[in-house]
Amino acid sequence: MSSREPMWFCHQCNAEMRPLMVPEPVCASCHGDFVEKIEDPADDPREFHHGDPADAAGLDPFLMLMQGIMNRGIPSERGSPRPNRSPTGGGNASSSFSFQIRSGSNGPAVFTIGGPNTLGGSPGLSSRSSSMSDFLHSGDDDDRPGIAGPLMAQYLMALLGNRGSHTELPGGLGDAVERGRMGDYVFNQEALDQIISNLMENSNASRPVPATDEIMDKLPREILEVGSSTLERDCAVCKEQFQLETEDPDEQIVITLPCGHPFHSACILPWLKSSGTCPVCRHQLITQPEHHPLPPRGSSPPGNGASRGPGAGGDGNLFHSLFGSMMGGGSSSMSSSTLGSGSSQSPTGRGGREHEHLPGGWDEELD
Amino acid sequence: MASISARRLSKELMEIKNDGCPVGINLIKADDFSTWWFTIEVMGESLYQNEQFTLQFRFDPQYPISSPAVQFIVTEGKQAPVHPHVYSNGHICASILGNEWSPVLSVIAVCVTLQSMLASCKEKQRPIDNDRYVKHAPENPKKTRFHYDGECQCYRIIPIQDLTIRFL
């Protein structure tokens, strides 16, 4: 090599040139910024063609890993014929995949792994390549055990420190991964604890389900009259005996729940708006979340094991539970507004739920 | 007209004054319908012999529809019992104070239930997540949604009607 300033190679237009320093080097020919100085004869960029994985300086171990996955992961190699994906299918490019990395100021770099020999330099190749998610997803259709496509893609994206990848992941994970930011990751136990706590605390899995207006409207109402047998009973909410000629005429209205327990309408309706159960026997007017992992209690009516919403425990997969409850927690979060001073609870008042301090719920942020 | 909560609390207070509290439980402060204090002792054989704790009830205007905020007092030289479901800040992880609250329950019912919870304790220890919880805990325990059945080895108390207590 002479002592002259070495030439540069542009990976975008394959030109050898001296770059324009603006101040980052860009190709003098095409103004692309994927340029490389030709300095090491053992690693001459001209020997490689655009799209060759060997260009990925520093990513070699990763690429080796990917290659390894390729070699093991193609379904057709495991005896389930899949003509379009056969790696031995000659010019068939669908067994390869490409992905883009945006890093630093070098703009997007496209890597294609697998497939036919790219040293052949077929320029149309990358457009025929299947995407990373296609590739990863292909494992899903197979009964192959192990890491499923979306999860694997997530791992890989995390490895890549993915930001703004064009890859679309199947199964709805794409969004979560694509919008990944540093704030989405935690690096110590305490932060993880905090996130888990928040997830747990925001979970509405065990939050009581209020009775609907329809259910409450349909409950039988009785206006107390002389001689009514209800007059011998107590309202279990206010602990008062039912009586005639009360100060407040509303107290003459008695609602008897399907389980047979009577209450003043003004006593039971606010409760039903926070929990659709009988205060005495917990008879469910509306299916409540199952928060008893233990063998069900004798008092639980049969057939009520159905869980509610995505946050409820049970058969849903863990990821869905976590995410479902995280989302659900937001939409059903309680307001902590209080009743106007001096106003009594009206049996027909709307939005009573907003006034309740729900048992055990989060009313506001942590202090 | 007095609110439902005031009427209900005055009725409970009257019963306490007329009939007295169950053994080991004593009302020491009920100046208004917002905060009541009780002392609580575990009678008979237990890990808490000769210990006395102070239990605070705070009521909001929606009581008894909404549960009271119940905790042990840990100021003025008072201590919370060392128990797997009592945090060192006095907060209590008990389902009847949370999602198993029912307006049928009363202040005395809660006292008796917590007394039983202490009486049946097998080993004096703090909840495993005590430090973490106490560090982040809201002032009002009602703002915590305790999990009564998770891996946090939490605990459920079957409502007082059943008068049984079950551990996970």
UniProtKB/TrEMBL annotation, chain A:
<feature type="region of interest" description="Disordered">
    <location>
        <begin position="288"/>
        <end position="367"/>
    </location>
</feature>
<keyword id="KW-0863">Zinc-finger</keyword>
<dbReference type="GO" id="GO:0005634">
    <property type="term" value="C:nucleus"/>
</dbReference>
<dbReference type="GO" id="GO:0008270">
    <property type="term" value="F:zinc ion binding"/>
</dbReference>
<feature type="compositionally biased region" description="Gly residues">
    <location>
        <begin position="306"/>
        <end position="316"/>
    </location>
</feature>
<dbReference type="InterPro" id="IPR051834">
    <property type="entry name" value="RING_finger_E3_ligase"/>
</dbReference>
<dbReference type="Pfam" id="PF13639">
    <property type="entry name" value="zf-RING_2"/>
</dbReference>
<protein>
    <recommendedName>
        <fullName>RING-type domain-containing protein</fullName>
    </recommendedName>
</protein>
<feature type="region of interest" description="Disordered">
    <location>
        <begin position="72"/>
        <end position="99"/>
    </location>
</feature>
<feature type="domain" description="RING-type">
    <location>
        <begin position="235"/>
        <end position="282"/>
    </location>
</feature>
<keyword id="KW-0862">Zinc</keyword>
<dbReference type="GO" id="GO:0061630">
    <property type="term" value="F:ubiquitin protein ligase activity"/>
</dbReference>
<feature type="compositionally biased region" description="Low complexity">
    <location>
        <begin position="332"/>
        <end position="346"/>
    </location>
</feature>
<dbReference type="GO" id="GO:0006511">
    <property type="term" value="P:ubiquitin-dependent protein catabolic process"/>
</dbReference>
<dbReference type="InterPro" id="IPR001841">
    <property type="entry name" value="Znf_RING"/>
</dbReference>
<feature type="compositionally biased region" description="Low complexity">
    <location>
        <begin position="124"/>
        <end position="136"/>
    </location>
</feature>
<dbReference type="InterPro" id="IPR013083">
    <property type="entry name" value="Znf_RING/FYVE/PHD"/>
</dbReference>
<feature type="region of interest" description="Disordered">
    <location>
        <begin position="114"/>
        <end position="136"/>
    </location>
</feature>
<keyword id="KW-0479">Metal-binding</keyword>
From TrEMBL, chain B:
<dbReference type="InterPro" id="IPR000608">
    <property type="entry name" value="UBC"/>
</dbReference>
<dbReference type="InterPro" id="IPR016135">
    <property type="entry name" value="UBQ-conjugating_enzyme/RWD"/>
</dbReference>
<keyword id="KW-0833">Ubl conjugation pathway</keyword>
<dbReference type="InterPro" id="IPR050113">
    <property type="entry name" value="Ub_conjugating_enzyme"/>
</dbReference>
<dbReference type="Pfam" id="PF00179">
    <property type="entry name" value="UQ_con"/>
</dbReference>
<feature type="domain" description="UBC core">
    <location>
        <begin position="4"/>
        <end position="159"/>
    </location>
</feature>
<protein>
    <submittedName>
        <fullName>Ubiquitin-conjugating enzyme/RWD-like protein</fullName>
    </submittedName>
</protein>
